[in-house]
Amino acid sequence: xxxxxxxxxxxxxxxxxxxxxxxxxxxxxxxxxxxxxxxxxxxxxxxxxxxxxxxxxxxxxxxxxxxxxxxxxxxxxxxxxxxxxxxxxxxxxxxxxxxxxxxxxxxxxxxxxxxxxxxxxxxxxxxxxxxxxxxxxxxxxxxxxxxxxxxxxxxxxxxxxxxxxxxxxxxxxxxxxxxxxxxxxxxxxxxxxxxxxxxxxxxxxxxxxxxxxxxxxxxxxxxxxxxxxxxxxxxxxxxxxxxxxxxxxxxxxxxxxxxxxxxxxxxxxxxxxxxxxxxxxxxxxxxxxxxxxxxxxxxxxxxxxxxxxxxxxxxxxxxxxxxxxxxxxxxxxxxxxxxxxxxxxxxxxxxxxxxxxxxxxxxxxxxxxxxxxxxxxxxxxxxxxxxxxxxxxxxxxxxxxxxxxxxxxxxxxxxxxxxxxxxxxxxxxxxxxxxxxxxxxxxxxxxxxxxxxxxxxxxxxxxxxxxxxxxxxxxxxxxxxxxxxxxxxxxxxxxxxxxxxxxxxxxxxxxxxxxxxxxxxxxxxxxxxxxxxxxxxxxxxxxxxxx
Length: 547
Hints:
The chain folds into three domains: 3-70 and 75-108 and 331-341, 2-Layer Sandwich (Nucleotidyltransferase, domain 5); 126-319, ATPase, nucleotide binding domain (Nucleotidyltransferase, domain 5), CATH 3.30.420; 360-545, Carbamoyltransferase, C-terminal domain (DHBP synthase). It is 33% helix and 21% strand. It is α+β, with helices and mostly antiparallel strands.
């Protein structure tokens, strides 16, 4: 059975990060986001390009898709009914680009937070788990909400509580992101990194801004997960904070009174406190010690580090690396599989190398379009040699990563040992703000040498404190922390060899320019090489350079 999962379908009021996942009868998984091929970051449109790509890779036709499921619960709305009546998406059959009916009539639309929960539970490997989901907005049970608490047991997932839209941590943090001068649903990672840069701000200013932020953020004191309806704020239902009025005078006042470092510091601090309250309340209520997380809130690596530090010795925690909306494509495919078979085929440590790979012939053909120099090389030895000599290298191998991180198949690599490499990659390659930090990849067998309280963390979703941050200035933030990919040999043998050859640690950032999606095709990689000061691209067994 071939199951096609789609994260959501436009038109939708909150459509972004459109993606597909295909689970076949042998439990093989293919997953890719529309932005990778459309080249529109956070593309929320019909996943036409990626459906075509999967059909090409698999040599299948649309008629061979047995089941389709959709991960945005609009079934009870006018838009949902219209899509259900005639479920269509764009697809390419032979040489004609046309609107083609696929699948069965009335494909299921699954609830948003429920699918976040399914994705996180399935990937965790836990038989029984508490699942906590927090994001901006989604539809469950025909109503918009901003999160939920679930118990998952032997495949079955049961909701305990949904958080209403007026308590949206995701939208509040997103609004503050806009106040800081970044883009909501894109720049939250920048807001996250501002906090440590407020270290030298006065205690008085921090107390003032924190007091203001507490009035903006919804609080969850007094939450009783056993009741239905609205979550309470110190015993009083919070009525006045909605999706459309959080950018009100309170936030505009913050912008006038404080710099963005202080605003980011206070927002991050308050969100961490609230999320820790929610986790504590949910664990106390259920008594469940296996906890996993869903929803875009949990892309916040600094918050995840604080959660790990708070609960790591008491609870078994799993941080889902595809916890945001694109991951729901995987979730709905897994949910449909569970409905059909009662089984969850995904192992506890899932590889995120789920996209396309490209042949040598495709590489050579695209390199010729740019008149680049291309030569056959030993890819591991060449990468090590170039990086040791201070070069910045694009590393393009095998299937593309699913999600927001370059994990060694679509990565830009450099030495971690000098500040200048951070500056070079930010200014001349990524073309982004100079203060933004980079992540390291660290081989698992040496992670204890570099990190305090090290644990296996293969997805760049969890922060750690470095033991000797002064030795690796290119991959640490100003607070001495980093967000590593901790890499085992079996995860990615070639990339592990490269990192091992460079003393076990390397600067690794996603292969893209600022504002662009991560590269998907050889052509995308060469366009990035052309438009940056990257020194070379190692792609398959070739080295590609400008002439």
